[in-house]
């Protein structure tokens, strides 16, 4: 790495890989700029499934979100199918947050979602400085004075925003609804029609 900032981004990239897949690929270290996405490889025998996902992606690009369940026996290529869809898209046309439930922060509540968002925030930190500042401003505006609630679940949020002031704790009976409301505002600020978000929760 050429600088301390490059070392920081590289280490955060390794952390995101570990949270997403439980392993670290060291042959392609993280860099300050977002590296081009490799060309999509050949996916054999999944034409129908790939076509179905492309239709969902087309709806997403029109601002129509949704949920897709991909099921099947272990090892038949469910994860590869989603990764193929991601690689088939031009770089920087969508955001991709992925987390594995079986590796998610030792079974903590919202662990899988937290791991996915942690990986996303880490990738955002690898974008050009001007883009990082834009993300920071946009997220701060979305979460307002309640950003600390999200940072408790996803500490990596403060890599983008800087330190967040402790939020006033809601009554216990309202805590879950309160958290869900802030999460919705956060995701609405991140995902746009120009650059939609795919949130992939594996296993």
Low-confidence stretches at least 5 residues in length (pLDDT < 50)? Answer: 29-40
- Main-sheet strand order equals 1-2
What structural class results from the helix and strand content? mainly alpha
| Helical segment count | 8
Mean pLDDT over all positions: 78
Overall 3D geometry? globular
Number of strands: 2
CA radius of gyration is 17 Å
Strand coverage percent? 5-15%
Largest sheet: 2 strands, parallel
Structure description:
- The protein has a two-stranded parallel sheet with strand order 1-2.
- It has about 200 residues and is mostly helical.
- About 5% of the residues have low confidence.
- The protein is globular.
- The chain contains 8 helices and 2 strands.
Q: Key terms for this structure?
A:
203 residues, mainly alpha, 8 helices, 50% helix
Brief sketch in words of this structure:
By secondary structure, this protein is mainly alpha-helical. It has helices at residues 4-21, 47-61, 78-87, 111-125, 129-143, 147-153, 157-161, 175-190; strands spanning 95-100, 197-202.
Topology:
Elements: H1 4-21, H2 47-61, H3 78-87, E1 95-100, H4 111-125, H5 129-143, H6 147-153, H7 157-161, H8 175-190, E2 197-202
Parallel strand pairs: 1-2
């Amino acid at each position: 790495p050429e600088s301390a900032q490059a070392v920081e981004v590289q280490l955060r990239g390794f952390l995101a890989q570990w949270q997403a897949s439980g392993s670290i690929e060291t042959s392609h270290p993280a860099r300050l700029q977002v590296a081009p996405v490799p060309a999509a490889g050949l996916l054999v025998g999944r034409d129908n499934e790939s076509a179905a996902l492309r239709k969902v992606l087309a709806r997403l690009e029109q601002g129509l979100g949704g949920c897709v369940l991909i099921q099947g026996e272990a090892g038949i290529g469910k994860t590869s199918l989603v990764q193929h869809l991601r690689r088939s898209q031009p770089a920087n046309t969508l955001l991709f947050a992925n987390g594995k439930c079986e590796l998610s922060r030792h079974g903590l509540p919202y662990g899988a979602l937290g791991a996915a968002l942690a990986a996303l925030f880490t990738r955002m930190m690898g974008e050009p400085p001007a883009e990082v500042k834009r993300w920071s401003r946009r997220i701060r505006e979305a979460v307002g004075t309640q950003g600390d609630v999200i940072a408790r679940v996803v500490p990596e949020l403060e890599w983008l925003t800087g330190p967040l002031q402790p939020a006033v704790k809601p009554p216990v009976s309202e805590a879950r609804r309160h958290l869900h409301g802030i999460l919705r505002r956060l995701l609405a600020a991140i995902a746009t029609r120009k650059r939609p978000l795919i949130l992939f929760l594996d296993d």
